[in-house]
C-alpha cells in the first residue's frame, strides 16, 4: 500500500459512498491505521448531524483514521488541530489573510465556507472526515459557500493535497501531545472568525445571541450574554455582526 512521507498509509478510490463509512468498515475489519482514505468521487458524503455533504469530482473528500493517544475526553480538541492543519494547507494555494476558522469545525475563505471537518469516535479509533470545496460551491445552504478555484491559480491533486495536509496535521498533533491544548487554543483564536463580535448560537432547544468571547480550556465556546458568560460545548454559529454572515 502506498504511504505518505509521514509513514501514514494512503488509499485512493475512484468512487466511494463515503470516506468516513469506508474508514468505519476498515476499522471493523481490524485495520488500525494510521490511514488516509481519499475518494475522487463520493456519492453519500455527510457532515455533522448526518447532513449531506455535496462533493463532486475535483473536490477533496478524505478521512484519516488512527488510534489516538490521550484521554478520551480530550479528543474533541483534535478538531482544532485539523482546522489549523487545513488552514496551513490552504495557505499554500491562496492568501493566508483570506482564511479564517469558524467554531467548531469549518474553514472559511473570504468569509464563506470552503472546508468542513467531522470527528467520529470508533471505539479505540478516531476517524477524521474532511471535505474541501475545490471546484464546487454548494448552493442553497444557510451560510455562504466558496471553492478554492475562485481564490487560487493552482488546484492540487487529491494525493498532493493529502500529503501536505498530513504533514501539517502530524506536526500540530505532536505539539498538542507534548504541550497540551493551550498553544493550539491560542493559535486557533488568532485565526478565528467573529471573535469579540456578536454571533448567534443555535442549540437543539434554544437560540442564543451574544458576543463570542473566546474558547475555554477545553475548546468550548464562551458566549457573553447580558446575564453573564455561558460556555457551549456544541452548537451552530451564525455571524450577526454587520457585514458578516454565517
UniProtKB/TrEMBL annotation:
Which reaction equations make up its catalytic activity?
A: biotin + L-lysyl-[protein] + ATP = N(6)-biotinyl-L-lysyl-[protein] + AMP + diphosphate + H(+)
- The signal peptide annotation in the UniProt record is none
- PROSITE patterns found in the cross-reference section: BPL_LPL_CATALYTIC
**How is this protein annotated for GO cellular component?**
cytoplasm
Q: Supply the enzyme class, top level.
A: ligase
Tell me the Pfam families matching this sequence.
BPL_C, BPL_LplA_LipB
What keyword terms does UniProt attach to this protein? Answer: ATP-binding, Biotin, Ligase, Nucleotide-binding
Where does the record place the BPL/LPL catalytic domain? 1-177
| PANTHER family in alphabetical order | BIOTIN PROTEIN LIGASE, BIOTIN--PROTEIN LIGASE
Q: What is the protein name given in its UniProt record?
A: biotin--[biotin carboxyl-carrier protein] ligase
Annotated source species: Hyphococcus flavus
Amino acid at each position: 500500500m502506498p504511504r505518505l512521507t509521514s509513514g501514514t498509509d494512503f488509499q485512493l478510490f475512484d468512487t466511494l459512498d463515503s470516506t468516513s463509512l469506508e474508514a468505519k468498515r476498515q476499522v471493523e475489519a481490524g485495520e488500525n491505521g494510521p490511514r488516509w482514505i481519499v475518494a475522487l468521487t463520493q456519492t453519500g458524503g455527510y457532515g455533522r448531524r448526518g447532513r449531506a455533504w455535496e462533493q463532486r469530482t475535483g473536490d477533496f473528500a478524505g478521512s484519516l483514521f488512527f488510534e489516538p493517544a490521550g484521554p478520551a475526553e480530550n479528543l474533541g480538541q483534535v478538531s482544532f488541530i485539523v482546522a489549523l492543519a487545513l488552514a496551513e494547507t490552504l495557505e499554500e494555494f491562496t492568501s493566508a489573510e483570506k482564511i479564517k476558522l469558524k467554531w467548531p469545525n469549518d474553514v472559511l475563505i473570504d468569509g464563506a465556507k470552503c472546508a468542513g471537518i467531522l470527528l467520529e469516535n470508533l471505539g479505540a479509533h478516531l476517524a477524521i472526515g474532511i471535505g474541501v470545496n475545490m471546484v464546487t460551491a454548494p448552493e442553497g445552504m444557510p451560510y455562504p459557500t466558496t471553492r478554492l478555484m475562485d481564490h487560487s491559480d493552482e488546484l492540487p491533486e487529491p494525493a498532493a493535497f493529502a500529503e501536505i495536509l498530513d504533514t501539517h496535521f502530524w506536526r500540530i498533533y505532536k505539539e498538542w501531545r507534548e504541550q497540551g491544548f493551550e498553544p493550539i487554543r491560542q493559535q486557533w483564536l488568532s485565526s478565528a472568525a467573529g471573535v469579540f463580535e456578536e454571533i448567534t448560537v443555535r442549540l437543539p432547544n434554544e437560540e442564543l445571541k451574544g458576543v463570542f468571547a473566546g474558547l475555554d480550556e477545553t475548546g468550548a465556546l464562551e458566549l457573553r450574554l447580558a446575564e453573564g458568560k455561558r460556555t457551549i460545548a456544541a452548537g451552530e454559529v451564525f455571524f450577526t455582526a454587520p457585514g458578516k454572515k454565517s
